[in-house]
């Protein structure tokens, strides 16, 4: 078992509010599922520091200085289909990633953002990633091939 695998998801308490708000509409991802979705999205970007993506090699669709649930809701509706699968990655691997429909993610956008000062919302069908950095806003772009 790798170090990342041992530490993955040990702080499930950080997403208690999300799980309570959405109930069975969310699936907590296993390490293997997280790793697979990360390989298709986050891992296709270079990093700038420890918790930022380098967007230079990606098609940036939108940048927003808004940093609240209303703005995340707008971005999810603008760049994804309401029925598509969304994966929410947090800034700490100890907090397990969750999968849910885009419509549910949009409905509970405030709760999602309250969990971590940074997160990434991957719209799986659209192949769009939304990066959130608290106090700075959102970057939306296509995942590089």
Task: Describe it.
The chain has six helices and nine strands, in the order ααβαβββαββααβββ. The protein has helices at residues 3-7, 16-22, 31-39, 69-79, 102-107, 109-114, and strands at residues 27-28, 46-48, 52-54, 60-64, 85-90, 98-101, 118-123, 128-133, 137-142. The protein is an alpha+beta fold and 145 residues long. The mean pLDDT is 93. Helices cover 30% and strands 28% of the residues. The strands form two sheets. The protein has a seven-stranded antiparallel sheet with strand order 1-6-5-7-8-9-4, with helices on both faces. Strands 2-3 form a two-stranded antiparallel sheet.
What Rg is obtained from the alpha carbons, in whole angstroms? 14 Å
The average pLDDT is 93
- What distance lies between the first and last C-alpha atoms, to the nearest angstrom? 29 Å
Care to count the β-strands?
9
* CA-based shape: globular
Main sheet record: 7 strands, antiparallel
Q: Give, in order, the helices and strands.
A: HHEHEEEHEEHHEEE
Share of residues in helices = 25-40%
Task: Output the structural class.
Answer: alpha+beta
Strand content: 25-35%
What's the helix count? 6
Unreliable spans: none
Strand order of the largest sheet: 1-6-5-7-8-9-4
Break the fold down into its secondary structure elements and pairings.
Layout: H1 3-7, H2 16-22, E1 27-28, H3 31-39, E2 46-48, E3 52-54, E4 60-64, H4 69-79, E5 85-90, E6 98-101, H5 102-107, H6 109-114, E7 118-123, E8 128-133, E9 137-142
Antiparallel strand pairs: 1-6, 2-3, 4-9, 5-6, 5-7, 7-8, 8-9
């Amino acid at each position: 078992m790798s170090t990342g695998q041992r530490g993955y998801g040990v702080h499930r308490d950080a997403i208690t509010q999300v799980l309570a708000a959405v109930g069975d509409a969310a699936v907590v991802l296993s390490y293997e599922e997280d790793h697979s979705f990360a390989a298709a999205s986050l891992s296709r970007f270079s990093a700038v520091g420890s918790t930022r993506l380098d967007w230079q090699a990606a098609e940036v669709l939108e940048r927003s200085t808004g940093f609240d649930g209303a703005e995340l809701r707008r971005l999810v509706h603008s760049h994804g289909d309401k029925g598509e699968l969304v994966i929410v990655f947090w800034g700490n691997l100890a907090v397990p990633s969750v999968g849910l429909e885009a419509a549910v993610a949009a409905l509970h956008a405030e709760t999602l953002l309250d969990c971590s000062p940074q997160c990434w919302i991957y719209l799986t069908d659209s192949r769009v990633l939304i990066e959130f950095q608290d106090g700075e806003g959102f970057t939306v772009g296509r995942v590089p091939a």
